[in-house]
């Protein structure tokens, strides 16, 4: 009976990890496709990103239900309990990352005169970096790798630097070209959403570190 209980618990944890991985994969694709749609002005692709966000939401609901079931039926303790709680929190954060990608996709049709905006050449690079953070933090979660989690946290400074550069560029552009203020403001929102994705990946990294070690990263490692 004890062996059966342990096996059932391991199967539940494996399922939990699989759901998180699936959510993360969808979130990574959403970031990339939202930026592609933004740069090309591809409203159809943007609409697909928005529609597919419902799948991420549904997976989060599955994670919530499974985590509650594990806690209720298995009464996990110590490391096992940290694992379940971390999965619950991570699912919520990944769902928010999906929402930020959806918000970017919704703004595709609001940008006019794309050729006039230099930041449109910077946003994909910023998006790639944010997407790498999401990918790496989910790899860290799957491997229970606190070292990789700390690397993700360190990368957030680069995303912040991108945001600051784009912000300054767009503000200057708006001052010099008042007619573009509306479109430039939308691009500012896009950059802000990418910056928030980096912040959320950092939050996940801190949870991964806690789940793996029982402690949060040293203060000097955090942004």
From TrEMBL:
Alphabetical list of Pfam families matching this protein: PhoU
Location within or outside the cell: Cytoplasm
InterPro entries linked to this entry: PhoU (IPR028366), PhoU_dom (IPR026022)
Transmembrane portions of the chain: none
Keyword Cytoplasm: yes
Entry annotated with the keyword Transport: yes
Predominant place of localization: cytoplasm
Domain PhoU: 20-108, 125-208
Keywords carried by this UniProt record: Cytoplasm, Phosphate transport, Transport
Record family assignment: Belongs to the PhoU family.
Function: Plays a role in the regulation of phosphate uptake.
Subunit-structure text: Homodimer.
Protein name stated in the entry: Phosphate-specific transport system accessory protein PhoU
Organism: Erythrobacter ani
